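User: My collaborator sent over this chain with a note saying "see what the structure looks like." That's all I know about it. Can you take a look?
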Amino acid sequence: MGTFTGNRYRTKTCGELRLTDVGQQVRLAGWIDTIRDHGGVIFIDLRDHYGITQVVLNDDSLLNGLGREYVISVEGKLRQRSQDTINPKLETGEVELKTETLVVLGTSSHQLPFEINESNTVREDLRLKYRYLDLRNPLVHSNIITRSKITHFLRNKMEELGFTEIQTPILTSSSPEGARDYLVPSRHFKGMFYALPQAPQQFKQLLMASGFDRYFQIAPCFRDEDARADRSPGEFYQLDYEMAFATQDDVMEVAEKVLYETFVEFSNKKVNKPPFRRIPYSESMSKYGTDKPDLRNPLIISDLTEFFNDINFAPFRNKPVRGIVAPGCTLQSKSFFEKMLEFATEEIGMKGLGYISVLAGMELKGPIVKFLSPEKQQELIRLLNLKETDTLFFISDVPRLADRMAGQIRAELGKRLGLIDEDAFEFCFIIDFPMYSIGEETGAIEFTHNPFSMPQGEMEALQTMDPLEIKAFQYDFVCNGVELSSGAVRNHRPDIMLKAFEIAGYKKEDIEARFSALYNAFQYGAPPHAGMAPGLDRIVMLLTGHENIREVIAFPMNGNAQDLLMGAPGPVTEQQLREIHIKVR
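Assistant: Without extra context I'll predict from the sequence alone. Here is the result:
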């Protein structure tokens, strides 16, 4: 907090005055938050970036048509408030400024689109259209200040660990990294386009090939993809870092140190200490039904496919079967089960949600029980260690959907049963991702994760193994069910790079054309290297306790990728289109 001695508008800020300043001649400047007329004595709450100070006017003429959100400068003597007028909610609540002079610096419309202090409760489109007013709300304002502090903290931590901050280009070439590119037409080269980087992926690898040992930047990334609560359409920022002569464990140790210390610094919640759990992808999918599990949820998914192999129950026939034991759930009301069925069928597309309740005396009850012999019932009790008042939920569908649906039921049960510890951050790494998968739309082999990753087993694996069995040195960093980061050990050898892309349907000519800089750089000796890129927006979102990422971005787009404040995307002139050789069809 600064002091502005001699400034023509203010000598102090609205957040710094205390009892020790009483008797001083003070000049303040800010926005009028509220005006209260108490019969000849007028009280103004004056607000600036730093806080609020109460200003007192005894002369009605000074008011002269002032309204809320007017910008004013006031000067007078600071005095102590009487005991019965102290405001304990304000840091400046024990003092007030007795105004002698008042100057209007900026007027405001008396018809505000919403109440400033309630802006976070109004429609999002209205908030974004008048974002400059929304950001005056101290609750919203504080999110951006916190983001700045977190960014500064992260930058300092990386520098302490010997990383060099380097900026990489914004205008570059198109690269297949999992989302659509934003394209920028060239004025000088007709029919040619730049692309905004989805990530600095190739550049940071080129920096490793250039002899830099540890690189980082707070990097802007651009992806033309649909919005979600935890994903901003268009632009987002990440703590991008890369390390030469590094293994997967080296990268994870940096993340553990930097992010653990960040969450401890900016939160009062419990934070699990490093080393964080390393969960193989296959285990994460089978136990939690997702590759970004919320470990605060104690529920575990069990594979019951083999158990039901010899049971003639049509809905489970020739399909994987998953089970989730919910302790104490039998005691829930009938409406609880009805709402869970409604969630399963209407929200995630399941055909039904079967369950078995464990009653007193370990009696099993439910429509499925009649298909189980007494021996099978006892086997199920032993297999899942069932106890009285437990409820066993069943999920069954085609292999492509069974795990995902089980994960969604697990998450919903954890939420509805109050099993989630809201006062904790639980970190983990998901490792051993499959290098390749079958594309749902194409039916062809494609990269599962980052195409520049090193396969486990390197060239031998690519030459001898079923591509769908090959694992990659790829890893995600997860907190409370939110993917904070992806990373990988990079493929730094041209021969392995060519073979890896060949399996995914790329020819050598494709690599030389689309990744020429990286491919050529590797011809001149590249070190083994690895890195990752934690998402700054998501880190701030978690630390400020928000569920929508747009709350922690100063000027976000809406869910349709529109900037309602600036009017983007918007039309351009015919002359502008001609200059870049574009015709709108």
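A starting point for your reply to your collaborator: The chain is about 25% helix and 25% strand.
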